[in-house]
Amino acid sequence: MFEYDSIAVSSILGTSLDAVFTIDGRGCIVDLNPAATRMFGWSREEFLGRNISLIVPSPLKEQHDRFLAAFNPDRGVKHVLGKGQRLDGQRKDGSKFPVEVGISAFVQDDKRYFTGFVRDMTERQRAHDRMHFLAIHDSDTGQLNYRGFCASATPNDDPARVICFRLEEFRRLLTSYSQHWCESTLHDLAERLQASLNPDEVVGRIREDSFAVLVRANAVERAEVLQQVFKKPVAQGRMHFPLTVTIGISRASGDIEQRLHDAQRACDRATSGNKGRINEFNDTMSQCIRRELQIENRLRDAIEHDGLSLALQPKVRLADRRITGAEALIRWHDPELGDVPPAEFIPLAEHCGLIGSITDWMLQQTLGEISRCADPAISIAVNFSALDFLQPGLIPGLEAALARQRINPERLVIELTESVIARDVERVKARMHDIKALGASISLDDFGTGYSSLSYLRQFPIDSLKIDISFVRDMPEKADAVAITTAIISLAKILGLKTIAEGVEREAQADMLQALDVDVGQGYLFSEPVSAAAFHRLLETQANTPGLA
Ligand code: C2E
Ligand code: CA
Ligand code: CA
Fold first, then answer.
1. CA 302 to chain centre
2. Residue limits of CATH 3.30.450.20 in the chain
3. Non-local CB neighbours of 510 within 8 Å, separated by 6+ positions
4. CA-CA distance, 119 to 187, in Å (whole number)?
5. I need a surface site. Which of 136, 253, 408, 522 has the fewest CB within 10 A?
6. Is the CB of 505 within 6 Å of ligand 1?
7. Which ligand is nearest the CA of 329, by number?
8. 3-state class of 494 per DSSP?
9. Is the CB of residue 428 below 6 angstroms from any atom belonging to ligand 1?
10. CA-closest candidate to residue 112, choices 79, 84, 85
């Protein structure tokens, strides 16, 4: 029977929760503690005299035997041979489990011994596995998340492409229905998607509203097949509604994150007509994105360093062609990019949250120019985007700006596009009333291009309608443009609204608009947008030229 040099040692080992084995130079077990029998299922008697390889599964078993044979410790010195090594242990019933092993060697009575401390890591391993699983999976659907998708989907063969499926209604569903319903719907969709995959394809839920699939076969064909998964309407109680799923396909180059990014960008860039369809990322998109990033970057700089300017385009009364006001239009000349048209940077500014600063700046400038006009009848219009209109600080901001400049608020016109009123009718209406209460006027821009039904307009406190350039452009030649313009004008008259025609370039257009009783015209025929100084000169000239009326 083996006995330790010290009684203390054997009593400590007896109470240890870790299994402790002592083996001789040939690997035979000479002692063990009670924890060892509990952990491995062999009794003390069964263990004693057996080789320690009994608890080591193959192929470690063989390596272990070779190591013992080769090891030759210095006499009487304790060696720590290994600490915290992760291995597999094997129970009497043959089942394996993870263990951590520390081994020390010592010599007693001229014989070589080893003591192994074995810790059962099953629970810890389980917790670790669970944490790892959670880190790379999405808890709603059980599918890989962004991180997991990127880690698991290696596009090592070049034709592999990522398809992104974006659920357009996701936000609306989430705000309208319970979290639980949304989770189970997503779970259902994820399962349908998973069931339709080829064995070499990987799926992930990479954003709250998007799934991605790495495919190796023809991506467009695969997108068409997988699209079917989303065709079945989702059910909420007795209601069934179809989903709009926009699909983006990456190029077959770059690492997985690059491909995923491409596919998402292809979704982002899907115009309203391409939502719910398949969109492939291409080089043109990549160039556009580069330009957009450049614009965004330079625009921030322009806002901070006074790089923007304002142009004023006169509005004239058609009856006598006298200037009654102007529209303020933003201008941006960048040292690197040159002149960037507002139609290009305004939508980007809306997208990246810069529009608020631009509108504030334009509003300040416009109010300043209004106060510089000697004629108190001159009004100037400033363009507000839909985003400006619904932001909470709108009314206090406007009120403060008007108070600072001390101008008659009636001289400020806010131009809103028709798309604004189609948004949140009640809120928009309330905002419009607030603006009216401050004394400013409201003009509905680009009228005729949206979907507002005519009777619908009645509910909004609008002062004027701006007939869209597209109708004016085709007048007087195209009968349908004339017919629509005539209808808009008569509607405006019935509702008591003033009419303004934009984009008037030719005399024939001005004549016809005047004949149709349009009040005001704006366009190159009268004047292009000019600097504020030039606008004030035009007003001065006008003041020195008495009109007919
Ligand atoms: P919009 O509000 O419809 O502005 C009228 C646009 O028509 C202006 O283009 C103007 O220069 C142009 N225009 C004026 N007369 C004629 C004409 O006779 N023929 C033609 N073909 N075009 C004419 P601009 O300045 O390039 O602005 C384009 C759009 O960018 C504006 O359309 C407006 O939606 C937006 N925008 C411009 N400035 C601002 C701004 O300060 N804030 C916001 N939110 N949007 C702005
Ligand atoms: Ca406008
Ligand atoms: Ca317009």
1. 25
2. 7-125
3. 318, 504, 521, 525
4. 39
5. 253
6. yes
7. 1
8. helix
9. no
10. 79
Residue 529: CB within 6 Å of ligand 1?
Answer: yes
CA 327 to ligand 2 centroid distance, Å: 7
CB of 458 closer than 8 Å to CB of 427: no
Ligand positioned closest to the Cα atom of 361: 1
CATH of domain 7-125: 3.30.450.20
Fold assignment, 291-543: TIM Barrel (3.20.20)
Closest CA to ligand 1's atom 13: 503
346 lines ligand 1 (CB under 6 A): yes
549 residues of the chain, pLDDT tens digit each: 677 766 667 677 778 889 999 999 888 999 999 999 999 999 999 999 999 989 988 777 777 767 666 665 554 445 556 667 788 999 999 999 999 988 888 888 888 888 999 999 999 989 998 888 888 999 888 899 999 999 887 776 678 999 999 998 888 877 788 888 888 888 999 999 999 999 999 999 999 899 999 999 899 999 999 999 998 888 877 778 788 899 999 988 888 998 999 999 999 887 767 777 888 888 888 888 889 889 999 999 999 999 999 999 999 999 999 999 999 999 999 999 999 999 999 999 998 889 999 999 999 999 999 999 999 999 999 999 988 888 888 899 999 999 998 899 999 999 998 777 766 788 889 999 999 999 999 999 988 876 666 667 888 999 999 999 999 999 999 998 899 899 889 989 988 999 999 999 999 999 999 999 999 999 999 999 999 999 999 999 999 987 654
Q: Does domain 138-281 have CATH number 3.30.70.270?
A: yes
Q: Measured from the CB, is residue 329 less than 6 Å from ligand 1? A: yes
The protein residue with its alpha carbon nearest to ligand 1, atom 6, reads 503
* Residue 232: both structure tokens together: 């079945």
pTM, 2 dp: 0.67
Helix (H) or strand (E) holding 405: helix 394-405
Q: Is the dihedral of CA 188, 193, 198, 201 positive or negative?
A: negative
Q: Is 343 in the pocket of ligand 1 (CB under 6 A)?
A: yes
Judged by phi (left if over 0) then psi (alpha if -120 to 50, else beta), residue 94 lies in: left
Query: What are the start and end residues of each CATH 3.30.70.270 domain in the chain?
Result: 138-281
Going by alpha carbons, the residue nearest to atom 24 of ligand 1 is: 342
The closest ligand to the CA of 381 turns out to be 2
Quote the tokens at residue 196: 């339709």
Q: Which residue's C-alpha comes closest to atom 8 of ligand 1?
A: 329
Q: Tell the residue nearest (CA) to atom 12 of ligand 1.
A: 503
